[in-house]
Amino acid sequence: MTRKTAIDLHGLFADEQPDCASDEFVESVSALIRVAQRRRWLRRFGLALSFALLGWQFQGLAVDLSRVLLVQLVELEPGLAFEILAPINSIGALLSSLLLLVRGFHRRLLAG
Known about the structure:
With 112 residues, this protein is mainly α. Helix content is 79%, strand content 0%.
């Protein structure tokens, strides 16, 4: 392509460009965006407030559940056995191990 052809093409495209959007259109789009952002912020605030209120109600239940999950299965004297078995010597550890086994068994059934 020669330089003259490139200049001619540039001139053609420059002549055919549509007029820029009017200020009224830009303002209306900006207003719609601001309204959408305000609604999104209000939804997020309402959701956070509802989670906070629900969390306040269920806080006692969560504390009781954590106490139950931390109950030791076997009482051990301090020593080497206590140090080795401490991570798996609770109801929570037993439940998480069982859930992991069920998940593995389920994946094997579906995979094959």
